[in-house]
Amino acid sequence: MKKITIAIDGFSSTGKSTLAKQLAKELEYVYVDTGAMYRAVAYFAMQNGFIGADFFNKEALIESLPKIQLEFKFNSDLGFAEMYLNGENVEKQIRTIEVSNFVSKVAEVSQVRAKLVEQQQEMGTNKALVMDGRDIGTVVFPNAELKIFMTASPETRAQRRFDELQQKGDNVSYEEVLKNVVERDYIDTHREDSPLVIADDAIEIDNSYLNKEEQFAAVLELVNDVVKTA
């Protein structure tokens, strides 16, 4: 069966990663969570005092980019690859609301995007890849055989994210999560470098009222249709 590249873009908390993991497992493809890469850089910036509630030293982060080594390592117990920053497993640390508050600002920096996009394109040279993010179908893999763009209402996404954080034991309010979702949407869609937009040939899926099983079945059907005609 022909191997293809599947690009999944969309707003935050639309379940892009969950869908991408499901597809990669079903198809036996490589899965790359680009959001984790940007989160790791944001976490690095936080740890080194480059970013905070009322400041962002972009120049210091840019100068430190050569010191940032990112790597995905597969965890057989979990069934997916975890994010490592300079040899340290930071999968748990990068999923906090604190990192979420800064990740879109870090992702605005052109030098950060250039570094990560180059790495992402190298990962996809052999196809058989599912990658999710904000600019996969428009910048990273503009020639991907299948492009999906996922969306849902801000309120729906905030509730999903809130429930997820609550299950992890994070002490956050729904209002705080909704504010974060709305702010990230604005930054992601208004940044100068590679803003979040729907590729002309992407298939848009509003999953506000779809469960994970329904969504997966619909997208898997799209994959099979593309593979047959590719």
TrEMBL record:
Localization in the cell: Cytoplasm
Keyword Membrane: no
Protein name stated in the entry: Cytidylate kinase
Classification lineage: Bacteria, Pseudomonadati, Bacteroidota, Flavobacteriia, Flavobacteriales
EC number: 2.7.4.25
Family designation: Belongs to the cytidylate kinase family. Type 1 subfamily.
GO function term, MF aspect, one: kinase activity
PANTHER family hit by this protein: CYTIDYLATE KINASE, CYTIDYLATE KINASE/PANTOATE-BETA-ALANINE LIGASE
Protein's organism: Flavobacterium ginsengiterrae
Gene: cmk
Catalytic activity: dCMP + ATP = dCDP + ADP; CMP + ATP = CDP + ADP
